[in-house]
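Example record used in the benchmark description.
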Amino acid sequence: MVVARFHYRHQGELAHGYLKSAGIDAALLVDDAGGMEVGMAFSNPARLLVRPEDSAEARRVLRDAGILDEKG
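Model output (structure tokens):
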């Protein structure tokens, strides 16, 4: 389940690290040609995925870290 989207790979990597530190398994899917085509992320943002049963906790961790706002 997608819990967040990012226009820049490094933002997604940071968020992924927060989830990993909290013990939440997550995957970051990025289609930017291995970092060579950064502009691709604006039409196809990086997606941070977790298991559906972890989504609420993942969003809480990301909100507490200031990565997601109250809506996100």
